Amino acid sequence: MAELSAELSKKLSAAVEKMPAFPKSVQRILELSRDINCPPKELVSVIEKDPVMTMKLLHIINSAYYSFPKQITSVNQSIVYIGLNTIKNMALSFAVIGVLPQNNAAGYDMQRYLMHSLITASLARMLCQKFNKDGTDPGDCNLAGLLHDFGKVVFAQFMPEEFKQALSYSAENKVPLYVAERKIIGVDHSVVGAMLVEGWQFPKNLGDSIRHHHDNDKPKNTLQCCLFVADQLSKHKSLNNGSDSPMEELPPAIAERFGGNWDEIIVKLGDLSSVVAEAHAFAQTSKEIQP
Predict the structure, then answer these.
(1) What is the number of other CB atoms lying within 10 angstroms of the CB of residue 272?
(2) What is the pTM of this model?
(3) Apex CA 289: angle with CA 17 and CA 18, to 5°?
(4) Ordered structural domains, the chain, with CATH
(5) For the segment 30-41, what is each residue's pLDDT rounded down to a tens digit?
(6) Using CA atoms, how far apart are residues 285 and 279, in angstroms rounded to an integer?
(7) CB 102: neighbour CB atoms within 10 A?
(8) Between the CA of residue 278 and those of 4, 78, 84, 115, 275, what are the distances in Å?
(9) Given CB 3.0 to 4.6 Å as the disulfide criterion, which of 8, 134, 160, 250 pairs with 106?
C-alpha cells in the first residue's frame, strides 16, 4: 500500500485519539494470563472488581446457552464449570463490546459487525488450537479476531461521510469494503485498526496481524494465518446467516498449512453451529445489560 500523506495520517491519528480507552482491567487480565505461574484467584480478583463485567459474565453463564443444573453465583465458582481460559475470553469479549458505540452517523450496522467479530474470534482460537505449530497462544488469536476490524468503528464514528461513501461504493461495485476504503478514503480499516490497538498498548504482534489481515500474500506466522483464515471463514454462508458473502481465494501456502480448501477446513473444524450460537448469546447479553 502507498505511503500515507501527512494530511491523511494526521486525520487518522486524530480519529484514533477520539476512541475511548480500552479498560485497564482487561489490560491487567492479559498481563496476568501470560504468566503461567499466576494464581487463578488473582485473575478472578481483577474481574470481580469490575461490577459490569462480573454481571455480564454471570448473566451469560446462567443463560439458556449453557443450561447448567444450578445457578452460578460467582466468577470463582464459574471457573469450576467452564475453566479459567473461557472466563478470560468472555471478559475480553465483553470489554470489546463495551467500547462499541450504540449509533453512528455512517449508518454502519454495528450488530452485524459485532457478530462477525465474535465469530472470527472463536474461529481464530479454534484454528490455533488445531493447527498451532509454534506455541502461539490461542487467546492471542481470539483477541486478534475480536479487534481485527475495529478500524471500521473508527471510520463510522469519526469519518462517517467518507465511510458511508466507501460502504456505498463497495455495495454498488461488488468489491470488498477494504478495497472501497482504499479508493474513497485512501487507506483501509486494517491500518487504522492497527494504529488503535498500538495506542491501546497491546503487543506489537497483535498490531501487525491486524495491519496485514487483508494481505493474503503476507501471513508470516500462526497468529496472522489464523486471523486471515478465520476472517474469511466467518463470511461462509453456513456461518453468515445464510448469506453467501464472497470469500477471497485461499493462498496455496495457507491451504497447505490448514489442510485443504475452505470447505475442507470447515470439515476439519467440526460442527460450528455452537460458534454462531455463542456469538448470539454474547451479543444478546450485552444488549440486555447496559452499563
Answers:
(1) 18
(2) 0.91
(3) 5
(4) 6-288 (1.10.3210.10)
(5) 888 777 788 888
(6) 10
(7) 7
(8) 39, 17, 17, 10, 5
(9) 160
